[in-house]
Write a structure and sequence with these properties.
It is built from four helices and six strands; from the N terminus they run αααββαββββ. The chain starts with a helix and ends with a strand. It is α+β, with helices and mostly antiparallel strands and about 170 residues long.
Amino acid sequence: MRVKLVVAMMSLLFVLGAVIAYDAVQAQMKPTGKGEGLRVMNTHEQIEAMVRNFLIGAGKNDVAAHERFWADDLIYTGSSGVVRTKAEIVKSVTEAAAKPDPNEPKMTYDAEDMTIHDYGNFAVVNFRLVAKGEKETRYFRNTGTFRRVKNEWKVIAWQATKIEDKK
């Protein structure tokens, strides 16, 4: 009888330990919105981080940022309505980085009002782009479609629309 009681107590302790360990792992995996810790970032955090990192690189004419961000089969529609490919964008950025125009105002970019919809291996982002220059700030509404291939996100479609100043 005493052996059965010891076995039952040991079994209970084992199950209790497993439940506590499971809860601890689940807590580490929960999104915190900060993209930090031992857990994997969720799609929203991954896409937001990609967009923000890309915008930093875009402000510096970082060719590698464009190479990482855009898919090879990208369809990009700029705010002027011109459609461009990844190759055209990378070529333009490469030329600008090689021969910087001293008269070209330095720009920084930021994203506000970001919305991300997760569709498994696809995600759609929409945000207000803030383009800050030395003399003016311009605003654009951007919508992008991301595709995940082999656990890597790339932009396959992008649409930029200039937000006109209200006067």
